[in-house]
Structures are given as C-alpha cells and as structure tokens.
C-alpha cells in the first residue's frame, strides 16, 4: 500500500496533471513521469501578478481553479509544491515564469532562463527581483543524507535591491534546568556570511529547540545572540529527519515586513 501511495504522490506532485486545456492554448503534459529531476518553485517578487512556471511550453506549477474554472497563477510568497518537490523531466529547458491572463488568450513572460536538470537531483527555482526587473534563477539543493536523528537548516537570500550582503544565524534559546536535566545556554549557529542576492549558505545541523533566525548586514558590528537584527523570525523545531530553508524575499526596505522572511521544508 505504501508503494502505491508513493507512486501516486510523485505523479500528482509533478505538477503536470493540472486539469483541462486552458484558454491560452499552452499545451500541458498529462501522462506520468517515470524518472526525472525534483524542483520546488518559489514566487518571491512583491507586487508581481499571479504567475506559473513553464519548462519550454509545458506548465509545471498550478493553483486549483476557481468555481468558475478560471485558471489561476501563484501569488507572491507562495511555493509549489508546499513541503515537497515536483517531479519533472530531466534535460535542458527554457524555464519561464509566465503571467497567464485567464480568458484573454494572452500570456506575458515575466522572465526566463536556460536550465539543465539532472535525473534524481533536487533544485529550487525562483521568480525574484522587482516588478520593474523580474528574474528567474535556479540553485541545486545538495540535500544532506536522510537521517531521522537530525535536523538540517540553511539560509537563502532572495531579497532584491539590498544595498549590503547579509550574515545569517540560527540562535537557540537557553533552556532552564529541570529536576532531571541541567540548564542549557544560548547557542549560535552560523548559516552563512557575506551572502548577496541569490546566494545561500550550506545546510547546518541543528538541535531541537526554540530558535530566532537573525539576518544582519555584513560588515557591521553585532552580537548574534543579543543584537537586534535587520530581520528575524522565531519558532520552535522538534521533528527529527527534516530539512529546511529560511529565506528573505521581496524588495529591500529600511524597515522590512514580517512577511519578508519565511521558511519551507525540503524533506
């Protein structure tokens, strides 16, 4: 039963069985993919129209249609698929982010790039930049080996127009002593330093706990454990065997919005 479920998930997650033909007449693949590459697609441009990713002329992302069967694209801040990868054919393609105008018979290519996807490799693809200057780029996700005793985390910078590179940290909160366990001090994990737009750090092993993810301007003076950062996010992590990425996105502002930092699970 589990084998059947896994096959069904890969088929659906591929993003190729996305419903009937659209009025924009762009063809879609409707048969299952036996092998290929694994890709997550991110929509990181604040103010961008709804869009979908395509490999050549084949749509590989999607949003459930409305009750009137209007086919939608993905909004800023979304990812496809969530907490998984789409299985797509391996090979060389033109990867495009397209604003498909439902019912109007037109499609506006926001940005595109040439990509080469290898069998059984994992990638993250991004629509980034600004509404005045869109950009599509892709990075390979060199996932750590599967290990259900560990948690792994990395940082990715997709915030456009930043006037500085960034240093990123995961700061684990102190744990008070209990009747059975001694106290644990604050711990600081470096996720990458001097990271410019479109750059990321390595996957770093973390312990379960409550963390604050902090991003500082490179070259400034700060204490990762105590200083106020440019942008930050706090939450607890407990599930072993998981792999995550924290990202900053949108367009740089002196006072960023809370929505400009978020995290997603690769595994």
UniProtKB/TrEMBL annotation:
Residues 37-167 form the DUF4397 domain. Residues 1-25 form the signal peptide. Keywords: Signal. Pfam families: DUF4397. This is DUF4397 domain-containing protein.
